[in-house]
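Task: complex structure prediction.
Instruction: return structure tokens for all chains below.
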Amino acid sequence: SQTIHQWPATLVQPVGSPLSLECTVEGTSNPNLYWYRQAAGRGLQLLFYSVGIGQISSEVPQNLSASRPQDRQFILSSKKLLLSDSGFYLCAWSDGWESTGELFFGEGSRLTVL
Amino acid sequence: GQQLNQSPQSMFIQEGEDVSMNCTSSSIFNTWLWYKQDPGEGPVLLIALYKAGELTSNGRLTAQFGITRKDSFLNISASIPSDVGIYFCAGRLYNNNDMRFGAGTRLTVKP
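Output:
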């Protein structure tokens, strides 16, 4: 069966520090991968999605970047964090072959920028 | 145009009552999904809908894909305390690979 994991689960970082959140998927190949952000009490905002290694689409201009160095690895990064980067970050995957559209989420990473 | 309008924003109901929430958009979607999110966790898929008019049940949950492809609803019958959480609708655009989410419906169930 397929599983998705992301880490760290919780992160407290000072303004201006770098960020790296990692997400890996097991049990499938060529998944579509996504990074979402959820502000407190709000819905999900799509940040990046990837249909293959090295292929990244950005949905909103921001202080963050994403990379996909391997088929089942998706990384969210920042060189200098802003206060507004605080939030709950969710990695997700969907089947890249059948395109059923179903998204499956990781456990989430809560980032607090101080 | 591609945003989903989900309502109500929150609901406070008594245990045993039925619940109904919906999502609408001005855009056409070819997949509708309903998720539930518990505090501090990632959303979990409840029901997936693929065809206009499709009505699907999962236990006490029932969801429908609107005929116009621009809306969907989720019903929960005979609510119980563990139904508490945030429910999200999500739609996959007709000619796009990504998913759009509603703002969520926060459900509180009083025992």
